Amino acid sequence: xxxxxxxxxxxxxxxISCPVEEPPLVDEYLECVAPVVGxxxxxxxxxxxxxxxxxxxxxxxxxxxxxxxxxxxLEVDIEEQFPLRARPMGPGARKATVEVEEExxxxxxxxxxxxxxxxxxxxxxxxxxxxxxxxxxxPDCAGLCMNCGADLNEAACGCDTGRExxxxxxxxxxxxxxxxxxxxxxxxxxxxxx
Length: 194
Ligand SMILES: [Zn+2]
Ligand SMILES: [Zn+2]
Prior knowledge:
Elements: E1 2-4, H1 6-9, E2 15-22, E3 36-44, E4 48-62, E5 69-88, E6 96-100, E7 112-113, E8 116-118, H2 119-129, H3 163-180
Antiparallel strand pairs: 1-8, 2-3, 3-4, 4-5, 5-6, 7-8
Bound molecules: zinc ion (2 copies).
One zinc ion binds at residues 63, 65-66, 68, 136-138, 141.
């Protein structure tokens, strides 16, 4: 969706609030499975256009440990600031139009075409930033067996040489030592990370 910001751009001190309810965004980086909802506030400070607010949606992500797809809630606070520049309408003209100055970014392109902002693009850029780098369907996801590939969230597979098993016995040993030597130096938790 495109938002015409002419009114706020031409009036210093103006502040407008804009409820957002956009259909789920789907592109190669992000697959939303719920509408993008929230509120945005646009403020003209004279020297800058401020965009504030918050957005929420749900994305379909694949768990980094067990690979299953799950719905991940995404929430993002928006705090953007674009310098404004007055541009005379013609030689000797008294009136001036105000334009948004933005850094040209090869990856994201520009958000504004004159006074019109590409809202969908703003939503996409903001939401992409809060997608977890290592999504987990559950913080305690047991993952897949390194040996047979079974989903260990469903049931134990019976493999006894799995990395998980060794990690767990390492944890047990650490816990026992911790109880016996409360003042020991912090150990390296390498055995526990996966
Ligand atoms: Zn998982
Ligand atoms: Zn197994």
